[in-house]
Amino acid sequence: MHLYQLIPEKIIEMKDWFVIVNPNAGRREGEKSWNLINSILQDKIHQYTSKFTKGKEDAIYLAKSAIEEGYKKIIAIGGDGTINEVVNGIFTQTYTPTTEILLGVIPVGTGNDWGRMFNIPTNYEGAITTIANGNTILQDVGKVSFYKDMDKFHRFFINIAGLGFDARVVKKSNQKKEKKKSGKLSYLTSLISSLLSHKSQTATVKIDSDSFSEKVFSMNVGICQYSGGGMKQVPFAIPDDGLFDLTVIKKLSKISVIRNVKKLYNGSFTNHKKVSTMRGEKILIESEEKIFLEVDGETMGHTPFEFEIAPKSLGIIVNPSYLNDLKTH
């Protein structure tokens, strides 16, 4: 997979941290809490430059521009959508190998599912201390191609892609966010209301050399484990094993979905006879009827999809407790 192109004889000066702030994240908590966050950054990080995003996808531009200016260490302040934009900036720039970029996160969103995987504290002091401590791993990053009508697009992602019912719920949940309604309860109400109108669709799935056709209710392609505000929809995912984890929920009744919602939070729903899990490096998904997509909580397009993985391609800062958990398993 082509991740970057080095520009010959390009000399980049190593700089300190570049901080990208989404002021609208978490019901404008990014803006409301900036003075507090800034004071903690001054105490623990010292040298950094900060910029506020001005709108959707601006974090992509800011990340790309920062790297072109010589920055290799970036802090994203926002939710999962902000992180996704920063990752797309990192992976679409042409100046520095992505493995030489380091990403730290200060969660200010409503879901903060990516940070859950690595035990990133949700309080500002803890998150910034985690960044200052500098415990790092190289994480896998995914790339998915999709369509909007006849036009083909692609998007990088760092956490989970949801298809079918999951994408419908995310779209409805994001519409509520635009109306200043967000959080776990809002997501659950979006889930229940989406359930009333959703219909299972037939998909043909090819994962590496295996393939199958199935009427599916929902699917998730994951690098990490959490989405939807703490749901473990891909509970066996390992963020640096070079493989996607695919969860397929086959057609099932609406009452069965409601009965098993609680099991989404501990991953035990995968024991259901209508649920299958598998792993692979490359996934192709086709359907006659359009199946829609979300990545890292952001609504994208529709089938056909092609997923590729870039193993251990981005440096990320994790909580030491995550590394300790790895040692005990």
Folded structure, characterized:
The structure is a single chain. By secondary structure, the chain is α+β, with helices and mostly antiparallel strands. It folds into 2 domains: 17-134, 3-Layer(aba) Sandwich (Rossmann fold), CATH 3.40.50.10330; 141-311, Tumour Suppressor Smad4 (Sandwich), CATH 2.60.200.40. It has 10 helices and 16 strands. It has helices spanning 25-32, 34-44, 58-68, 80-92, 113-117, 124-133, 165-178, 184-197, 254-260, 320-327; strands spanning 17-21, 48-52, 73-78, 102-107, 136-148, 151-157, 160-164, 201-207, 210-222, 226-227, 231-232, 244-250, 275-280, 282-286, 292-295, 298-317. The chain has a 6-stranded antiparallel beta barrel with strand order 7-9-8-14-16-15. Strands 10-11 form a two-stranded antiparallel sheet. Helix 2 runs parallel beside helix 6 and helix 7 packs across helix 8 (184-197). The relative contact order is 0.16.
Question: Quick recap of the structure?
Answer:
By secondary structure, the protein is α+β, with helices and mostly antiparallel strands. Helix content is 31%, strand content 34%.
